[in-house]
């Protein structure tokens, strides 16, 4: 029996070795095809019918969507950008000031005309002109771990937060860095009368991104300060706007007033400050250009579909005839008729 088992084992070992070698060769072939870009690929033939249907689908989707966006944008309220840094006491000088306590502030009132009724909520934005938030030194001057709530020492945040790491008394700034310590600090009141005795509600909760509120800004010093979270999402442009608050009251058409308390200096870098009020909907703020773009693309698709319809009727069917040959991986086919009795039938001989 031992002899018989002795004879069987070499056979099994040989079979296992052969299987392993075959599997290795198959794997090598698959990898070689991948590396040499010889894998099978789907290359559809664009017949006139397929192209016409595709253009018609684009037309049917884009034109109605563009009309909806354009009409909706035309009926949305969006005031003009109202500059206020050059209005009366709101012009506070060039700065910079030694600290927030020494900085002057000024109040001014700006009239705002709303030309149609607005259902709450509307949105109040502030903006700066010629303020480069995208400068590399500015963008990188922050410590994400400190903002998240980690216990960070001066040596740990120094590289990230320079040049604003410590306070004048030597204690660590929290939050540190240029972005957090240059926050826009003007405030606004939205009123129905020029003396601002009757104010509409400006709600600044849930104006920051959810990930910022729940993940990125969770330290005790910044938790709940959504105006800071909005500020620290830096803009890539030199002229930009940011959300200040939501107006929680319905607004009737008429004249309103915004009382601005100006504290943020812009004269030193030839900047400007402005605000405006706007509605938003499922596609964002009023954007007639977006609606026109959809309509134009849909119209072009309609014209092209008509061109292909006319062209396909004036020319023969462009579907592949039976005798059309296909190139397969460098194999050159030769078409030879098999017999004269079978019209439309061809035998294909592949010559390597």
Topology:
Elements lengths: L1 H34 L12 H27 L7 E2 L22 E9 L7 E8 L6 H4 L4 H5 L5 H8 L25 E5 L7 E2 L1 E2 L6 H7 L9 H6 L8 E8 L6 E9 L9 E7 L1 E2 L2 E2 L2 H27 L17 E6 L8 E6 L1
Antiparallel strand pairs: 1-9, 2-8, 3-7, 3-9, 4-5, 4-8, 6-7, 10-11, 12-13
Unreliable stretches (pLDDT < 50, length at least 5) are 1-7, 320-333, 335-352
According to DSSP, the number of beta strands is: 13
Main beta-sheet strand count, sense and barrel state: 5 strands, antiparallel
- Radius of gyration, Cα only, in angstroms? 35 Å
Organism: Chondrus crispus (Carrageen Irish moss)
Main location: membrane
InterPro entries: CDC50/LEM3_fam
Region (Disordered): 332-352
What does this protein structure show overall?
This protein has 3 domains: 1-41; 77-278; 321-352, no CATH class. It contains 8 helices and 13 strands. It has helices at residues 2-35, 48-74, 136-139, 144-148, 154-161, 210-216, 226-231, 288-314, and strands at 82-83, 106-114, 122-129, 187-191, 199-200, 202-203, 240-247, 254-262, 272-278, 280-281, 284-285, 332-337, 346-351. Strands 1-9-3-7-6 form a 5-stranded antiparallel sheet. Helix 2 runs antiparallel to helix 8 (288-314). It is flat and about 90 Å long. The relative contact order is 0.19. Keywords: Membrane, Transmembrane, Transmembrane helix. It is a multi-pass membrane protein.
């Amino acid at each position: 029996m031992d002899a018989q088992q002795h004879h069987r084992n070499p056979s099994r070992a040989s079979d296992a070795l052969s299987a392993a070698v075959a599997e290795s060769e198959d794997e090598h072939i698959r990898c070689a095809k991948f590396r040499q870009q010889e894998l099978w690929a789907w290359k559809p033939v664009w017949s006139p019918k397929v192209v016409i249907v595709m253009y018609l689908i684009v037309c049917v989707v884009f034109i109605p969507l563009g009309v909806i966006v354009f009409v909706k944008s035309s009926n949305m309220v969006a005031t003009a950008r109202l500059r206020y840094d050059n209005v009366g006491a709101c012009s506070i000088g060039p700065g910079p000031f030694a600290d927030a306590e020494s900085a002057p502030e000024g109040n001014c009132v700006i009239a705002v005309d709303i030309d149609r009724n607005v259902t709450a909520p509307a949105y109040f934005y502030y903006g700066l002109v010629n303020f480069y938030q995208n400068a590399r030194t500015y963008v990188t001057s922050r410590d994400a771990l400190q903002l998240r709530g980690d216990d960070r020492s001066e040596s740990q945040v120094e590289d990230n937060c320079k040049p604003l790491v410590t306070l004048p008394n030597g204690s660590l700034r929290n939050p540190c860095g240029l972005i957090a310590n240059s926050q826009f600090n003007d405030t606004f009141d939205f009123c129905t009368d020029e003396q601002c005795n009757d104010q509409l509600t400006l709600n600044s909760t849930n104006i920051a991104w959810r990930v910022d509120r729940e993940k990125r800004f969770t330290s005790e010093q910044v938790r709940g300060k959504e105006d800071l979270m909005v500020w620290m999402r830096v803009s890539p442009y030199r002229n930009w706007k940011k959300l200040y608050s939501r107006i929680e009251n319905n607004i009737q058409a008429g004249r309103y007033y915004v009382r601005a308390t100006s504290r943020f200096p812009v004269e030193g870098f030839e900047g400007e400050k402005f605000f405006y009020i706007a509605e938003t909907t499922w596609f964002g703020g009023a954007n007639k250009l977006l609606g026109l773009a959809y309509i134009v693309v849909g119209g072009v698709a309609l014209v092209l579909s008509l061109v292909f319809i006319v062209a396909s009727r004036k020319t023969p069917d462009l579907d592949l005839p039976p005798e059309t040959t296909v190139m397969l991986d460098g194999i050159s086919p030769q078409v030879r008729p098999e017999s004269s009795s079978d019209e439309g039938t061809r035998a294909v001989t592949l010559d390597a």
